[in-house]
Amino acid sequence: MCYTALICVRGGSKGLPGKNIRPLAGKPLLAWAIECAAAARGVDRVIVSTDSPEIAEVAIRFGAEVPFIRPADLARDESPEWLAWRHAAEFLREKNGYYPPALLSVPATAPLRAAHDVEKCLAIYEQGNVDIVLTVTDSRRNPFFNMVQSRPDGTVGLVIPPTGRVFRRQDAPAVYDITTVCYVVRPEFLATNNGIFEGRVRAVHVPLERAIDIDTALDFEIAEFLMQRRARASSPG
Fold first, then answer.
1. d(CA 118, CA 37)
2. What is the mean pLDDT of residues 105-114?
3. What residues pair up with 3 in beta bridges, in sequence order?
4. Which residue, 57, 45, 67, is CA-closest to 20?
5. Is 237's pLDDT higher than 70?
6. Quick one: which of 196, 207, 199, 16 has its CA closest to 108?
7. Domains of the chain by start residue, with CATH
8. pLDDT in tens, 181-212
9. CB-based contacts of 113, cutoff 8 Å, min separation 6
10. Cα–Cα dist 175/38, whole Å
11. CA 123, 185, 63 angle in degrees (round to 5)?
């Protein structure tokens, strides 16, 4: 089965202006997502959904297609990416006369992903009986053990009180953080629903060092360090 990978990148990032084309380890952040998606087995096309001509130019330079410019009302700060996914899926349906077998979203903000992380998500999707496959990593906090919320009386308590005593984090029920490494969505589900957990969801675990999600300047520094460490580890000698 052949898949089209989608990368959604807006031009108006407020937290870190120019984030998606900011250089990281020698190339724009967006380029890492394009190259990883293109390297994954089963992916025969990479398209970028953006409202920015500058981002579009970078995307094309690194081998992606930009078959449309995303409408401005789908590129605001408050615009759910879900709607950008739906817009892309409908574009492909109108262009080809049918939906693609899946919508494969590869966000630009997770540059340390590996091609086999994407391939694992596709493999789980191809097993069937699922509406969306997402990626997770081990959570650094646990609502059964070391996450609290305020009570009306001014005290705090665990977000989810366990049914028994939990003295160590390892004894609490396992929880995971959703990552932005990869999503695989059934287009028909995307067209008729408004959120991930309205359907049947499965997950692929990704190690923390490949799951970093860039949102701040500090995230960029951490990613740069991890990229350099990866490069040293793969260098001969």
1. 7
2. 97
3. 43
4. 57
5. no
6. 16
7. 3-139+175-234 (3.90.550.10), 140-174 (no CATH)
8. 999 999 999 999 999 999 999 999 999 999 99
9. 33, 36, 106, 181, 182, 206, 210, 211
10. 31
11. 80
